[in-house]
Design brief:
mainly alpha
């Protein structure tokens, strides 16, 4: 089984997941647990189970894995939204499979990755902004509007490019 994380997945999926995980950690977990270093205090014995691993290593691993999982869930939600958005502004997604490899690579590098990042990060910021702990942080909504405006612009270009083939 081959497993690799490409630039698109790392940037467009994991970064938004990391935003949510770190916001939850900073706003809800760290203050309750006595700060960032107290998060896994109950894991003090884990070092013996994991060999040279320290509780901080376990904490970092949990945050990274959590960010990847949350990022993939956010991206799955975006995928569901694509079905609705395709009714308004259709994209020929078959282009990603049947198009010229060089054109597809440029399409993904210049448009699709940034589009997915914008939408996924908007979803992540909305999740954070709706938290009762952050309701007064109105600047998040400005970021959401900017990212969604850019996503709409990128999607318009993607629809044009996918129609042209």
């Amino acid at each position: 089984m081959k497993f690799s994380i490409d630039r698109h997945t790392l940037f467009a999926h994991s970064v938004p997941g990391f935003l949510v995980v770190m916001a939850v950690y900073a706003l809800a977990v760290a203050p309750v647990q006595g700060g960032p270093n107290g998060f896994f205090n109950r894991w003090e014995g884990a070092g013996s189970l994991l060999g040279a691993a320290s509780p901080q290593w376990v904490e970092i691993l949990a945050l990274v894995v959590g960010a990847i999982v949350v990022g993939e869930v956010i991206d799955a939600f975006r995928d569901l939204l694509e079905h609705l958005w395709d009714h308004v502004q259709p994209i020929k997604w078959d282009f990603l499979i049947s198009g010229d490899q060089e054109k597809v690579a440029r399409f993904v590098d210049r448009y699709f990755t940034f589009y997915v990042f914008d939408v996924n990060t908007s979803i992540a910021l909305i999740l954070v902004a709706l938290s009762p702990l952050v309701r007064d942080f109105w600047e998040l909504w400005i970021l959401v509007v900017i990212l969604l405006f850019n996503a709409v612009t990128l999607r318009r270009e993607m629809a044009r490019i996918s129609q042209d083939g």
